[in-house]
Amino acid sequence: MIAIMLASWLVSWRLKSKFKQYSQIPLSSGMSGREIAEQMLADNGITDVRVISVAGRLTDHYNPTDKTVNLSEYVYDARSAAAAAVAAHECGHAVQHAKAYSFLKFRSAMVPALSIASRYMQWILLIGILMLQTTPVPLAIGVALFGLTTLFSFITLPVEFDASKRALAWISSNGIVTQQEYGMAKDALKWAAMTYVVAALGSLATLLYYGSLLLGRRD
């Protein structure tokens, strides 16, 4: 778990470093993040999704509930390789939604249950540990709830990788980036994806820890 914490810090630092580096390189096409997002949506026949600006850095996301592509202020008006990568990636999620991508549907279906689980999970785990010598039931419930969050983390991986794949294919085939800029965009999205990989592994490690406590009690 300590190794995963260190890996998480390293990946986060690397992502921010790469994004900063590629944000300083002007895009040859001169298109802004907003323009790239709007064109990708249009090219995929998506007319009911809005592209809006949100505050913060690396706060970019697609909201399937209100059908909005939310681009951070460092992407929305920016004209760089990093902005192109992020804008196209978030639109990749919109394309997944429009095409009913199976993993995205599965992940979305899990959200209501996950919302309830995350609200009570830590308390149940704490109670389970405190009562472990008396009864394993609370901890077993906590482990089951944590297992749901871990499953969600792993279901997120193909969703993120597929969105990046769609983004890179589109910006390349439509002349949004040069070959050199494509390499930068691909590298930026690779490090972004690694944050989800580390998060999933961290969730799995924590699940195994609580599971070992439960199995130890049964033994």
UniProtKB/TrEMBL annotation:
Residues annotated as transmembrane: 109-131, 137-157, 191-210
InterPro entries: Zn_peptidase_2 (IPR007395)
Keywords, sorted A to Z: Membrane, Transmembrane, Transmembrane helix
Keyword Kinase: no
Pfam families: Zn_peptidase_2
Identification of the protein by name: Zinc metallopeptidase
Naturally occurring in which organism (per UniProt): Pontibacter populi
Upper classification of the organism: Bacteria, Pseudomonadati, Bacteroidota, Cytophagia, Cytophagales
